[in-house]
UniProtKB/TrEMBL annotation, chains A, B, C, D:
Protein name, per record: tRNA(His) guanylyltransferase
Cofactor(s) demanded: Mg(2+)
Gene3D superfamilies in the cross-refs: 3.30.70.3000
Binding site for GTP: D29, G30, C31, H32, F33, H34, S75, D76
């Protein structure tokens, strides 16, 4: 039973290779996570365990996919940057997108118990994703800055919002109260009313999470004479740091090096 | 801290809406499942539990996504047909692809224990996927026939191959032995040498698996007089049947009904 | 001097083949023809010579490109329908678009003198174009109906507008006057104020122009006995007829016949 | 007669905007120019008038479209480079492609008489085209180098080929004769057999044609005292020069300046 009669249907598949010499970003985003986080009683405005779970998955992504050079995460969202010259699946958009999202999802479910030992998964978590091409390293930096500014704006708002709600306001009242306030007003509110110095909040909440490879010095083992030997190794690291200013990028030029 | 300075990066996202009035197929495929099935000691040529797990995930897909009208699975592959007029995520290819693959992966990991109670997942299973548009119902039928013919060809070959290997041949010898054989030769080989009547093998192995909605008659409950009341309900069903010939489609015209 | 060092740039060319089993429409449109028609003193609201020139080019298009099965034109716009199964340039969108627009433009300039013997071309006329895929013949009919309804709406409006302007109103006054009027009102206006029965206007103005192949009976030549021999021939014809209703299409089913 | 019933067909038009921050090249190519040049008895291997006509059209293109920053032409082919940040028709591929090809074709037909006063156009000349995005200025230079190397290879071959044919060989014999010859062999052949020093051939044949804007010093007019006033003006110029090496680009950095 040859299959030639039906093989014409393969012609409907299109060639979706992304253009060469472009950085590729895969951004994934929790699907209906508003509800998912309510169902699983995530703490508001930030649930440390949930963020640690996301970060752990991101670290595993970089360990698994060598062409991912940087990742930035905030809330239920993560952006993965593939190097400009990657030939991963011949740069086919569908392959890159589906495999990234699928592998991340798989990790998320498998690692759940590690971060929520006392909570059962009540429904299958899922993520949507998209693939974006950026022609220059400078634009990748701007993209990541865009996500980190977003992190800041949302976190500041949410911190105010949930403190107001926890102090007795309804969600609608809290929303009304914050309408039109500036960044400075919100900091003032947190300090005056709740005794919170915004800058003392955990960096993971304020800055989001960066995952990348860095040279790390390790004590490897003892030599014959019993002395410890140090060596540097390229390791995937997690950091909650500023990536809007030039400092990080000038100290880690190898990450977005152009060919 | 307004975000306007960096928002220009959003312009790099492209509009990937699929054309209207086309059936959409999402086909997902296990990634490196050759190795995954070896690591988890799947039976060869077909592991019932592994197939039942795939099918269970597919049934959950149809229960979760109302716009999937049909699914066909074989081995570690599943095709999901979305109805011609679906407005799911405005028909955006990335959303449809990533969500389908992600939700399926999530189900696969969550249901693993149910089908493999004695096996731990040793590595995160993942699936790649692609999205294909088909302009006519007839072509969708041909697409599905293409997959089912493929199922037949592969299963017949694999059944011969693994019986030869299990009877003492090396994998290379088995491969050599089967080179150039026709369908009829393979049936003959199975019958003569291994006493297997190919058509007696489980339909799930020979035909693959179809998932769709069908009217099912249920005994709902007893009425006041103690008589059982029957009602018909639209239910997601699983069947291992021929979808190459016209019979199935003429009996289930509602599945691929064109507007 | 081998060229291999630079050949990598070919990888930036993308594969733009249109999906199979779709009708392809190339719609071209005069670029800045508002100004072009003013520069060349086209009559308002319709210039017969300019329309005849467009139509002559369209007829030549069908004579040159056998895969164009139908064309519909109105004002400085023309839509060309390529048959569902065309393999013209492997269905590559850029090739189909650029060649259609280029050949049409070439014809337009070369035929200009034939239709405007007393007018010099003052500037290079140019056309933009786009390519659209339609998965079903019924949708092609709707597309063409859409263009013909547009022709009607525009022509009725323009006929009123230019009669008002020619009778002394400024363009702004004419515009104001027509604001909010219905189709019926406009017919009434034309009849009452200008003695024009809209339906008596030339069909080319009211219906636009259709170009297609039809069987035409021709007197071929005389036989030996001096009797004329009739034969039917497939010929490109031009007609100004209704294509919104079903009549034309049921009488010319071969034009949009699906495979 | 409202048009809403059919307007759904507009949904089949897709959004084809090219990605931002990419240089855009439109390359056009004569369609069936082998036959066209035979029909119009172009001189072989190079017809000066035909090349001058192409170049004249290219100069008019740059005068008409301010966003074209450079053009390179060889034989019946021309590449037009639009600046990285062009917003021409919102970077829609179809618009950019169709208008460029259409305007060029229009110029070609209108200018024909100027370059071939004694030849009638026997058939409508037409050009196909494609649009390509390049993410970096360096790659645009490589693209143009690719075209100029091609020009050299083809011209050297064609010069040998036609000299052999004109000296009595058949086309097939000439082809056989040149098979496997290197660049050096061909130069030797030209010199030994035909007394041609390849480097003495017109630069337009060997280098192709570049069109770009340059500062040109002009004698504008006389002042009151009768002295001529010089001024520099940005003008579209034509040159037959090397663009493979770095010299041209370092002297004209403004042409491919990145933002």
């Amino acid at each position: 039973m040859a299959n030639s009669k039906y093989e014409y249907v393969k012609k409907f598949e299109d060639d979706d290779r992304l253009p060469p010499c472009n950085w590729i970003v895969v951004r994934i985003d929790g699907c209906h996570f508003h509800r998912f986080s309510a169902d699983h009683e995530f703490e508001k405005p930030n649930d440390k365990n949930a963020l640690n779970l996301m970060n752990s998955c991101a670290v595993s992504m970089l360990e698994h996919f060598p062409d991912i050079v940087f990742a930035y995460g905030v809330s239920d969202e993560y952006s993965f940057v593939l190097k400009e010259t990657t030939q991963f699946y011949q740069r086919r958009a569908s392959k890159i997108l589906s495999l990234s999202v699928s592998y991340f999802t798989s990790l998320y479910v498998m690692k759940w118990k590690e971060f929520f030992p006392d909570k059962e998964l009540k429904a299958p978590p899922s993520f949507d994703g998209r693939v974006i091409c950026f022609p220059k390293a400078k634009i990748i930096q701007d993209y990541l800055a865009w996500r980190q500014v977003d992190c800041h704006i949302n976190n500041q708002y949410n911190t105010c919002f949930w403190n107001l709600v926890n102090s007795g306001k309804t969600e609608r009242e809290a929303q009304e109260f914050l309408k039109g306030t500036q960044s400075k007003d919100k900091n003032e509110l947190l300090f005056q009313q709740f005794g919170i110095n915004y800058n003392d909040l955990p960096a993971m909440f304020r800055k989001g999470s960066c995952v990348y490879r860095d040279k790390v010095e390790e004590t490897a083992k003892l030599d014959k004479g019993g002395n410890s030997i140090k060596r540097t190794r390229n390791k995937v690291v997690l950091a909650h740091i500023d990536i809007i200013g030039p400092k990080f990028w000038s100290e880690h030029q190898y990450i977005l090096e152009e060919e």
